[in-house]
Backbone:
């Protein structure tokens, strides 16, 4: 049986990859994919802790997070489509009119 | 006569204030005579109420009261070492004294309203003028009907505002609005002292109700014996000080020295205003205040002699300044200052009815003179320089006759109004219980000189305006009847007005006014008795002074010609024309240092404060601008900041677990 | 351990593919790979229900939605210079620091229980036991999430809805409804007219 620490370390690596991707990609959709990756990393950590404690609460929380992710994707993609209708691009660097 | 059982007198100030409200809101939409008719009729209604109040109050000993159950001033007093709430209620009181005043205010006020309908025709601010006049009448009635000093103060300030608005009525001219501001500011000095006086009175008496304060002295005051109810001794310091504060307040409103300079400038307002506010009513508020506070002044001999002396000096000052003026209204203005000085002599001497007597007669003849000069100015299309007048006797016959009556009345020629009131003043100064015998005689002598001067400058005024040949260029025309009828009525009052206060030597009970006011404003105790023949001699001397003044004036004018050029050029004439350099003295003593200080403060402000504040503001802006670089608008730039922050935090936690 | 290493390598490879592919479709497919790997990993962690949900909801529904939007927008690759060139090195450095720190912290974790007994308590993470937890301890969050999903659906619809054009069409048709000849003429070309 693999120790919990390895799963957590894997989750940390996946999360960091997702974060770096979020920062380096310029397409809104790809940034969104990276956010999903980070969410899944967190889910993996939760499931690993669930096994470590022998408790199903964390697994239930993961289920809720999955549902939230579905809702978030629906809204997020809706926003991207709405923006795309105004400006035919998903480049977030173009959307910089809110500056000081 | 059922309505006599109701206290309708409190409606007196309400009606003109209602007119003010109506005219200020809807006046602009009214055709020309309508606002004047509304305003005049409302003042006439107040006059009717004043008559009703007079009839009601005549047989009574106590004042009629009309108190709102409205605690408009919360006050606490110390009783047996504990603070007890004793709020002051908003109330009006009508007694014999205020009844006389309301008759003067509403009666003269009504006549002047009617006159103004003619005088102000074709003026752009016609309805505004009547709105202000109504406001003034309302506030003046509040002043005289007040049952406590704070309510009186409301009216006091209200008439000040009305005076300010009406002096600066033609505000587009810088000179007029400057005059209005001067009047307002000088009045504020007096008001500050009036407030100090109120505070001191409250400390001393634990109340500000005028009638309570006056009655707390008891009906008989014996010098040097502590009065019963309050423990306030005759002539004790708090009493004297409060009386002095009230005196300074009164001096501001009544243009007494040293606060007299605003009144001549106040002639910048329309002539009906000069007649109503700056001759007949508002400026006499100071006299009324002293008479109203007779309990305090009768028990403050020091302050009372100050009142007399300030009055005497002001009387001389005004008379000397009036001699060489060339503006038809300025002569009358300085004359008003001088006559107000007379009134102060009267109330200072302790004979309060005499002061009110002169208030009444002066209101008659000075309103008459002002309105006559208004009629002259109206006829000459705005000309005010007496050197450009003359010979108007034929052109303006009505105005000429009433002016002659007014001139003789103010000069004190028997049997016109001024004769009786002036004699009463002189004899009351001669016999006054305050300030010692010598001081009384001296003030009497000053009063006699002033009577001589008064007759002199008034005769000069009359001669330059009406006698001789016309020296101007306008085409004079007699005023309409709406203006002449008030003149006739005032002339009639100037003739008969003196008979309400006949001198004693004609019999014991001939003096109606003194008897009428003996409850509301009793004389101070301790007047020196003089024999009947002594009184007669005093009167003869006063009459001689008046006639002498007229003759002297005739002689001077006959010698120097109508323009009296040679005479004005002398140093004395110059001093008189410049009003004894009082304005210049203030410029040097007050304005110049104040200006210097303000300039230094302005320098400090612009170079010190403004720069400092500007530097703070600029620094904030710059700091903000430098921070706003972060607000680039790029989502990734924000996100990378979040990532770095998280990395640093997590890294710190990891390193800490190392240690 | 061997299984774990294989799965971990696959997951990391998928994740790196997600963030490196220029094309959105390749990127999304790489992420699908990672998600499927994670689903398998859930099985090794005794979370069978979550594993199946992961496959169905994430790898299935969500990723299909992504691919659908990518194809709908059909955007070519990012053009123009990166306005924030400094972000990439900083992000990579920060990411490495964070990953290292988190991994380091992860190895500080002390197992609170014996792993065998704890695993047994999970009963395999089957739908029955998960459902029991969800409908007892997690009832309120569960209902709240259902409402959230409803809101998300309504929000997504309203975001991409074309309200004004629709109203205009309705008004034009009702305006001409009284004019029969004209209505007949337009009815063939205007389907909304039939509804009206």
Residues:
């Amino acid at each position: 049986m693999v120790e919990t620490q390895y799963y957590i370390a894997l989750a940390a690596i996946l999360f960091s990859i997702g974060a770096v991707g979020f920062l380096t990609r310029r397409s809104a959709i790809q940034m969104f994919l990276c956010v999903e990756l980070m969410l899944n990393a967190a889910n993996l950590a939760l499931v690993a802790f669930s096994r470590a404690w022998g408790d199903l609460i964390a697994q239930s929380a993961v289920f809720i997070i999955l549902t939230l992710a579905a809702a978030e994707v629906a809204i997020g993609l809706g926003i991207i489509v709405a923006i795309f209708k105004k400006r035919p691009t998903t480049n977030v660097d173009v959307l910089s009119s809110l500056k000081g | 006569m059922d309505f006599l059982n109701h206290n309708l007198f409190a409606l007196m100030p309400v009606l003109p204030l209602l007119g003010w409200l109506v005219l200020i809101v809807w006046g602009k939409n009214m055709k020309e005579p309508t606002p004047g008719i509304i305003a005049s009729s409302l003042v006439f209604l107040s006059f009717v109420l004043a008559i009703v109040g007079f009839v009601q109050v005549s047989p009574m000993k106590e004042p009629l009261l009309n108190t709102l159950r409205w605690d408009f001033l919360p006050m606490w007093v110390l009783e047996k070492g504990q603070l007890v709430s004793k709020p002051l209620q908003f109330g009006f009181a009508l007694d014999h004294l205020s009844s006389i005043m309301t008759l003067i205010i509403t009666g003269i006020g009504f006549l002047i309203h009617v006159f103004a309908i003619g005088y102000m025709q074709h003026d752009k601010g016609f309805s505004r003028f009547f709105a202000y006049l109504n406001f003034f009448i309302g506030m003046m009635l509040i002043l005289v009907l007040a049952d406590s000093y704070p309510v009186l103060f409301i009216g006091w300030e209200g008439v000040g505002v009305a005076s300010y608005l009406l002096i600066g009525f033609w505000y587009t001219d810088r000179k007029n609005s400057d005059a209005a501001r001067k009047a307002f500011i000088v009045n504020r000095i007096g008001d500050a002292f009036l407030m100090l006086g109120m505070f001191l009175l409250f400390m001393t008496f634990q109340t500000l109700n005028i009638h309570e304060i006056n009655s707390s002295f008891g009906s008989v005051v014996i010098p040097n014996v502590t009065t019963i109810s309050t423990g306030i001794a005759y002539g004790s310091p708090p009493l004297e000080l409060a009386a002095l504060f009230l005196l300074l307040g009164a001096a501001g409103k009544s243009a007494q020295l040293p606060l007299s300079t605003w009144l001549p400038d106040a002639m910048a307002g329309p002539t009906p205003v000069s007649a109503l506010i700056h001759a007949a009513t508002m400026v006499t508020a100071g006299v009324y205040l002293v008479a109203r506070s007779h309990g305090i002044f009768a028990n403050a001999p020091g302050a009372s002699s100050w009142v007399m002396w300030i009055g005497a000096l002001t009387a001389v000052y005004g008379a000397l300044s009036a001699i060489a003026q060339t503006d038809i209204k300025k002569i009358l203005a300085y004359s008003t200052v001088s006559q107000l000085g007379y009134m102060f002599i009267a109330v200072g001497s302790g004979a309060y009815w005499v002061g009110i007597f002169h208030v009444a007669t002066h209101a008659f003849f000075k309103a008459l003179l002002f309105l006559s000069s208004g009629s002259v100015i109206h006829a000459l299309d705005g000309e005010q320089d007496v050197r450009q007048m003359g010979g108007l006797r034929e052109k303006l016959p009505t105005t000429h006759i009433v002016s002659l009556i007014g001139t003789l009345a103010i000069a004190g020629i028997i049997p016109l109004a001024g004769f009786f009131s002036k004699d009463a003043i002189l004899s009351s100064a001669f016999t006054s219980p305050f300030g010692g015998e010598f001081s009384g005689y001296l003030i009497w002598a000053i009063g006699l000189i002033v009577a001589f001067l008064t007759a002199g400058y008034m005769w000069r005024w009359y001669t330059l305006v009406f006698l001789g040949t016309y020296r101007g260029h306008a085409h004079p025309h007699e005023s309409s009847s709406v203006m002449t009828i008030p003149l006739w009525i005032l002339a009639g009052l100037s003739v008969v007005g003196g008979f309400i206060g006949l001198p004693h030597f004609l019999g014991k009970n001939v003096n109606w006014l003194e008897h009428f006011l003996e409850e509301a404003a009793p004389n101070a105790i301790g007047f020196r008795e003089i024999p009947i023949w002594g009184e007669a001699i005093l009167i003869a001397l006063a009459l001689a002074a008046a006639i002498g003044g007229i003759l002297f004036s005739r002689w001077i004018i006959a010698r120097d010609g109508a323009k009296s050029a040679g005479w004005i050029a002398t140093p004395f004439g110059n001093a008189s024309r410049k009003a004894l350099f009082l304005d210049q003295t203030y410029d040097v003593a007050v304005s110049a240092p104040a200006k210097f200080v303000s300039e230094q403060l302005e320098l400090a402000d612009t170079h010190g404060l403004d720069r400092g504040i500007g530097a703070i503001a600029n620094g904030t802006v710059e700091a903000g601008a430098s921070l706003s670089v972060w607000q680039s608008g790029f989502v990734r730039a924000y996100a990378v900041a979040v990532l770095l922050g998280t990395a640093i935090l997590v890294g710190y936690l990891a390193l800490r677990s190392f240690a | 351990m061997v299984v774990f290493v294989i799965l971990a390598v696959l997951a990391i490879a998928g994740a790196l593919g997600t963030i490196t592919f220029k094309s959105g479709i390749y990127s999304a497919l790489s992420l699908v790979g990672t998600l499927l790997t994670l689903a398998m990993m859930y099985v090794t962690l005794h979370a069978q229900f979550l594993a199946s949900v992961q496959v169905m909801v994430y790898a299935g529904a969500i990723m299909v939605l992504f691919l659908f939007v990518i194809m709908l927008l059909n955007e070519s690759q990012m053009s123009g210079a990166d306005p924030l060139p400094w972000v990439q090195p900083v992000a990579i450095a920060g990411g490495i620091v964070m990953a290292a720190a988190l991994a380091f912290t992860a190895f500080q974790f002390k197992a609170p229980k014996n792993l065998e007994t704890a695993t047994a308590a999970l009963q395999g993470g089957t739908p029955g036991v998960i459902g029991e937890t969800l409908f007892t301890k997690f009832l309120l969050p569960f209902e709240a999430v259902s409402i959230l999903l409803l809101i998300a659906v309504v929000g997504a619809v309203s975001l991409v809805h074309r309200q004004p054009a629709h109203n205009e069409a309705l008004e034009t048709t009702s305006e001409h409804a009284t004019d029969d000849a004209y209505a007949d003429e337009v009815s063939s070309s205007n389907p909304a007219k039939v509804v009206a």
The CA atoms of residues 15 and 40 of chain A lie 8 Å apart.
